[in-house]
Amino acid sequence: MTFPMWLSGLVRATPQAYRSRMETITPFAWSLALSIALFAGLVKGSVGFALPLIMISGLSSFLDPKLALAGILVSVLATNGWQVTRQGYPAARAAAILHWRYLLIVMVAIFLAAQLVTAIPSEMFYFILGVPVVGLSLLQLSGVRLSIPPARRVQAEWGIGLISGMLGGLAGTWGPTTVLYLLAIDTPKARQMVVQGVIYGAGSIMLVLAHLRSGILNSETVWFSVAMLPAALVGMAIGFRLQDRMDQALFKKVTLAVLVIAGFNLIRKGIIG
């Protein structure tokens, strides 16, 4: 199958290596991958973020990390779109206007950083994924809250947005740094969910376009990515139902603990292969 003509300038040819990786995925690996997507969707529906972190951490534990990155892309795009539309257009528009600097730098950095993915050795890629997962999760578990005074918010938007976009382009996730930033400027909970949806939605569009260009998402890996989507959507629907019924603080701590374990596993693979 080929991509539509309007995408032909973005998409690179499918590397033979991706074809062989796709063909060697066992039924057990498929089942495990779908379970990870289901859990990731459930967490995102419950707390509003962490789907890319959970999916990339879990899938990279038994699949090639670049194939794992391709696997999250369709789910990231679709679930973020759902999160944005669930909040309504007026709220989303207001959030985009208020945080336009952050949005802009995240999107540019995602596109540029994504072009480096195919040049990074697998071991280094595992390490790049693992360190932010562990560091940011432990930071949140410890209860540390950054505080950014109003006079420094413009600089913070550009700086933290750049870091978020670089992580997004390389590892497919810019959620934790975005959440930390919104907490640091004392964003009310209701507005924070809207802002997260807008930032993740815009960034996910850029991420997909970037990896069409990088070759990570191609005519072979797109089917693996599409296959992850139903499980992620089912999980997200369950998560939305749980959102008002569960102790969010406890659920978030459990989720972050899982991310720490997954992140340490990635670091282990990056060090010892």
UniProtKB/TrEMBL annotation:
Q: Which UniProt keywords apply?
A: Cell membrane, Membrane, Transmembrane, Transmembrane helix, Transport
Where are the membrane-spanning stretches?
Answer: 28-55, 67-85, 97-117, 124-148, 160-185, 197-216, 222-242, 254-272
User: What Gene Ontology terms describe where this protein resides (cellular component)?
Assistant: plasma membrane
Q: Which Pfam families match?
A: TauE
Q: Which InterPro entries match?
A: TM_pro_TauE-like, TSUP
Which subcellular locations apply to this protein?
Cell membrane
The membrane topology term of the UniProt record is: Multi-pass membrane protein
> Source organism's superkingdom?
Bacteria
Q: Which family does it belong to?
A: Belongs to the 4-toluene sulfonate uptake permease (TSUP) (TC 2.A.102) family.
PANTHER family assigned: MEMBRANE TRANSPORTER PROTEIN-RELATED (PTHR30269:SF32), TRANSMEMBRANE PROTEIN YFCA (PTHR30269)
In Swiss-Prot or TrEMBL terms, this protein is called Probable membrane transporter protein
